[in-house]
């Protein structure tokens, strides 16, 4: 099957794709005619597509998040490729396609990622810290299996959040070994908790954020995670004013570093400084890696990436 | 008794004052001599003072927050007045001075301010809202009797916090009447809760903030108040995810309006917008009023005030 | 008649509306055909509309700011509703429609608003102040009956400027009573003068700003109002260097608070501080109230509002 | 006579200098002793000086802006030179010193500078423009003979303002010749008017700004000059709304270019753009030239200059 | 021939124009039809154009940068004019058109501009300076004959870069005469070198920048010119650490004044200050002049110009 | 010997220290007396010290960077400790003190650090890259043995620069292993080259930066290192326009990430992104670690650190 990221103007394509969007619209003709405005997707990317002749039956057949077999032509429209669909049908069981094959995912199995996170939590020495972390994991464990880390900035795919946490844990372990003045318990706890409330902040399906929740908009994932630390303390009988709880909240609250980036306080313990810069390093490099991964082979430069000062990245010949 | 704000170069002063600071230092003479570096205060202001001849007994006599009777001369030092003390002694019971007469206070009795706040809370219609607000008041009721609202920016005096809340409640009531689309319960709740955790963020004595607490530095009063809302919900059996709790937290979290001013989220309900601008109006005008109050009669311009873009205020002839 | 803000995709609409825009365009067909690109409006909002078949007579019939009767279908175009017009005709006298019923207006009669403003001016104690304020009102009295306060930010409708001034006067009176150190004359004068030159800065018809005047672009309403104070002084025989004139100009010049918001000087008298924050409170809350008023019942969130840090507002269930 | 800018640690100095400051202070000794805290100045710079033994007669003898003959020693105090005065007396008529020899001045005679400005004004072709410019010159003609252009940023010396205007007129004439699309009348008028109200904004004596006037603080020189244009129009019978008046005000109002630099509107005619950048070029280069002029021969780097992004300037060996 | 800047809606045009863009696209009709999406240009401006009926032969006939004769109609599309082409053919030799007549150019012959630059370089007194400047000119001499100074900001036309340098040299000579403390060699060298590497940073044809080169994106013209100074020093046997080389590099590196504008260091010698502000004055005024030149006679205001704080310019009646 | 960071008010100290500063000043007494204004230092910190009785012989004895034996008393002066010296003498050979024992140093021997850097350079696979890196190392090899990485921000001690590079190389190796899409040669080359010209930018002795060099001020270490890459290319016969040279310069030029932080271009290859964030992580964490190391045991909070948003760091009880 041809991957969408390799589509080139003029390609005649036949294959299975995911309908990420499926809207009925009308042309300006007199009388106006219905057409389908689709977005097709696979694990490598997505492309807009048009179906110009729409029957009454078609209207009742095609809906978002459905797998279809299409035959069509790749054309340029406003300097971007789109597909003109000539034939389309629903994929059937006999076609043997699985939805999850058509979405972008972390390169490691979600179950393994969640296992790593839980193992790391279990390895936290301080028992109060450990139980608070485990309490918070338990609130989202199921969603960690598939949630992305963000809407678009970085790790925006299936299990992207768990993958982000795991790569940060690797980096955190290295840094804590390189600098023994850091407390490894706090590095681990900070990394696991920092974005733990994202599944409550955003609504996501199949690794795609559809929108922010009411709580997400009015409170944000930083305050939500801070709430969970308090809930954990009360549930576990830990004094909410104890240094452990204050420090865990501080790690969460300060991890965006600056007020204009959403942190109500700035990092003021060494592990909070480390947490912010480990998060930064992982998010920026992953965004660069993903942008290069989905860059057509014929291109040398990515689109400008908001996460790195809105600059594009150049791919060198190896 | 001569008020400190009326001291003029050359004045010979005799009177009772509060020792706000009392440190022993040494001159550069050879051999060096001890002297006392004081700050004298009364309800109108404060002034540095020096006692050049210090006996061994003196060292054991004078300490901060003690009332003394002094006789001395007002001189200019680096363009600011200071007092050269000629005679000093501890004030005794017979002198009939009370500590609280020597500190700057809100113009309304603390007990009346706290009464207004509690009455207003009791008038909140929604019972969940009301009980959360009352839970939070109960955590600081005693400290509301004397805490200032800030270290220096505004309402920085005895019971300044309660006074700030009460004036805001007056303004909030007016605005809610002028604009019936606003929910008066949320206006009241927002005003009472917005700075409620300041007594936990700062350490203060006699209306003077000495420093910030560890929690104050690592979490800040905004997150502390958000914590209390969660604690209240759990204690009162209210779902922490209910709209009431989310909205109350949103009011608290967003009341500084911008991330760079400490709010992790921006106001997104009408009452949160109202809360921020009511807070702003009261704080700025009070800061201006206080600056003019403590301006010597001979001066036309105050010092630059950080709270109003670092500009000084001009006092017009009436 | 169905209000435009309640239009939903698929609605068949028949009713009277105002033609806010009426342009003839051509389709890309070969040969190209003429069509009318309209914007329909009523007091609740506006919607784009298309008339696909345009006769030679039609071209000479439909012009902006005309009332029409239309019959058409509400469709979605680029995720926004627009109307496909099937039938259209000019409204006649017999239809009994009045233009002013179709535009958004202040909720109080303009004549009453202007009366309040003039009464308040007449109540200014200081005779010089009073006569300068009355001189400036007289320059725009007629336009105060219908001018909006801004192009889009706030009070952008018929008599919006006079309404803004009146609500500020209410708030100003409250604040001056709450804080007797403020001079009520200057509060009143500042509120009436602060935006008084907006009708000279902008061109507006029926409460809609069409564009800025040359003077508006090259000088701005702040400097224009400052000019009027000088003109008034000279006309009334008041020394242009007197404290009254300097203070009135200062109130006008500083009311945007910061240089980047258009004020060449920053507020440096208490009444100027009060003026800026009263203006802010009224403008922000009115913008929020208006945005919620025109929000379709089916929606929970407004569009992002530039005036409140580009954030949307959430409408709670009461 | 040794110029102050050539003073070096250890120098024994005898000469005539201006007392720019003369304050009596007291040492910390017991009993405290009086001493004189002076600032000595000449046309090349200034230096703090101390007179440790002060007689009762001395107190009645030395005052600011008086010429004295001193004999003393240059010492380092907190890494800056100051003079310890051994002998001092008032300069007498026989000494033959003139006050104006001791202050920093423009390198061209004030009378010649003002002559150039008036000649240029007289050469403006448009008679309305010309008479407005001449009206404004007449308000400050006498003060143009000695006023500095600023407190410290640039041209901060005797007749600095007139000198700044004249150098800008030279540059403006060149630019208008190089680019004939510019209107030379407006270039001339803009240059003469742009800072014309500075003598009303600041109080200055002998080329030294002592402070800002009340008008200067509350209105600023930009709005003051805009006022004068209106006054001129009314006095001369020109319509205050005519294009000439609007354009002249626009030149004045926009010449600081940005709101945060004090301009309520931004330049929107070619001559306003030219005016701002001619002003900028002259002010920056003059500030650099003056800083190098007063730099001791032994130094290679000036102090950081606020006017050029707070950078110091390096003096190359020629 | 009708100049494009004078095109008005409804004009029937016949004439020769340059095809600046020529892309084949497809309509949404069923079956879709090919059409040509052109941009026509002449020395006065450019306009989009459509050719709706495209034959197979047409596809092989029209390419960018070709001269054509067209007959068509000017229409409004999305509030901007575009041409509907009725007839089109290639221009032939007999038509007597020259490509260079159809592009915007500096008003002085390129050969004269380059001559001025080389003469000025030859007049630099210091032989090291002179030979470094000549080395750098020799790297781009040919491209100086046609390169623009920028993609869009200013001097964006044929030989715009050489023209910019020459006008700056005129201004620089004036300033150096007005202020003898400036070193004329460094003024000349700085002006010639400051943008000398632009032809290496950008790819341009016929005065139009098509894109940035890889070097241009990864290093920028400032660092490229700094490299050339080092190359010159090595080639000419001048010590790379000598003051001459350091100063020449400093002029180049600092000429954008601020880090956020691309300069890694800020100007710290007088000639570097002069260079930056001479560059600024020339670039801003030229951008204004060019914008007014290409403004249709019927318009009073240009588009907002990014180079002058995104403000439009008003054209006065003379 | 008592470490300076453990000095407490009232301590009687006897021990060997380094004279970091030694200036003769005069008291205000009449006649004034000479005294020595010292700064004493050891590897743990520094403290001001005064010697009040100075003989003629003393003046010729004590100079900066000399080891002395002192006996004195720790006192508080303006809330900071300083020492009053009672006895002092030069340290002699018999005392057995070594200068390098008294200065703060990297925790690894300089010779080992330089060895690591050279070994890493030797391991770069691409021969052009490798030889450019080795060329640049050879320019500063000797100074790498002792240069600090900065004046005050981070790694401001003996061999701090080499230590910074080595820790970054460890981190870089980890990141390159974790993310195989990164080119390890470029990570190594970027890390070694990024600050390689700091010894040319700053003058330093014994790990202490005394000031910036002329080149350092006028060009900066970023442009200096870019120069060296060009010099290396020419010396080694590599085309200065080859991708290798462009990429190496890009790594150096972009490593400060933003223009306002000194980078004329922003990172646009993955390894440049990695380089910037590895540099950031190492510099911030080292600054935090060093601040805690030199924090007196009695303190919980460091001074505000400019490198981490001017926040202080809290030291937790382990």
TrEMBL record, chains A, B, C, D, E, F:
GO MF annotations, alphabetized: hydrolase activity
One biological process GO term for this chain? rRNA 3'-end processing
Q: Per the database record, which ranges form the HD domain?
A: 162-283
* Matching InterPro entries: HD_domain, NA-bd_OB-fold, YhaM_exoribonuc/phosphodiest
Cite the Pfam families for this sequence. HD
- What keyword terms does UniProt attach to this protein? Hydrolase
Full protein name: Metal dependent phosphohydrolase
């Amino acid at each position: 099957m041809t991957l969408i990221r390799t589509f080139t103007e003029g390609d005649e394509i036949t294959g299975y794709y995911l309908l990420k969007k499926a809207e009925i619209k009308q042309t300006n003709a007199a009388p106006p005619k219905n057409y389908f405005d689709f977005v097709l997707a696979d694990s490598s990317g997505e492309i807009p597509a048009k179906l110009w002749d729409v029957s009454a039956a078609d209207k009742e057949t095609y809906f978002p998040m459905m797998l279809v077999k299409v035959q069509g032509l790749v054309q340029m429209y406003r300097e971007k490729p789109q597909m003109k669909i000539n034939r389309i049908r629903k994929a059937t069981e006999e076609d043997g396609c699985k939805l999850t094959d058509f979405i972008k995912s972390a390169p490691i199995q979600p179950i393994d990622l969640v296992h790593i996170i839980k193992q790391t939590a279990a390895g936290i020495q301080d028992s109060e810290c450990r139980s608070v972390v485990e309490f918070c994991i338990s609130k989202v464990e199921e969603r960690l299996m598939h949630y992305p880390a963000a809407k678009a900035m970085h790790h925006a795919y299936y299990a992207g959040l768990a993958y982000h946490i795991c790569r940060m844990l690797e980096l955190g372990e290295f840094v804590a070994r390189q600098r023994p003045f850091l407390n490894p318990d706090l590095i681990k706890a900070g990394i696991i908790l920092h974005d733990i409330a994202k599944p409550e902040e955003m609504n996501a399906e199949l690794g795609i954020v559809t929108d922010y929740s009411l709580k997400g908009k009015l409170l944000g994932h930083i305050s939500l995670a801070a709430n969970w630390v308090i809930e954990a303390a009360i549930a576990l009988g830990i004094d909410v004013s104890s240094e452990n709880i204050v420090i865990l909240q501080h790690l969460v609250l300060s991890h965006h570093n600056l007020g204009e980036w959403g942190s109500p306080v700035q990092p003021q313990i060494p592990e909070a400084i480390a947490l912010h810069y480990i998060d930064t390093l992982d998010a920026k490099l992953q965004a660069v890696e993903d942008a290069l991964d989905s860059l057509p082979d014929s291109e040398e430069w990515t689109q400008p990436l908001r996460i790195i000062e809105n600059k594009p990245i150049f791919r060198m010949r190896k």
